[in-house]
Amino acid sequence: MPHVIIIGAGLAGSLLSIYLAKRGITVDVYEARDDMRLHDVAAGRSINLALSDRGIAALREVGMDEYMLAEAVPMYGRMIHSVAGETKLMPYSGRQGEYINSVSRAGLNIALMNEADKYRNVTFHFNERCTEFDCKTGVAAFSSGNSVSADTVIATDGAGSAVRHAMINGGVERFDFSQKWLEHGYKELHIPPGAGGEFQMERNALHIWPRHKFMMIALPNFDGSFTCTLFFAHKGDNSFDEISRGSAMDFFEANFPDAIPLMPTLIEDYLHNPVGNLGTVKCFPWNAGGKALLLGDSAHAVVPFYGQGMNCAFEDVRVLDALIERHGSDWEAVYNEYGELRKANTDAIADMAEENFYEMRDAVADPVFLRKRELETKLEQSYADYFSKYSMVTFREDLPYAIAKEKGNAQDRLLMQICSEVESVADIDLESVLALVRRLS
Question: Which domains, ranges and CATH numbers included, belong to the chain?
Answer without folding.
Answer: 3-41+104-179+279-357 (3.50.50.60), 366-440 (no CATH)
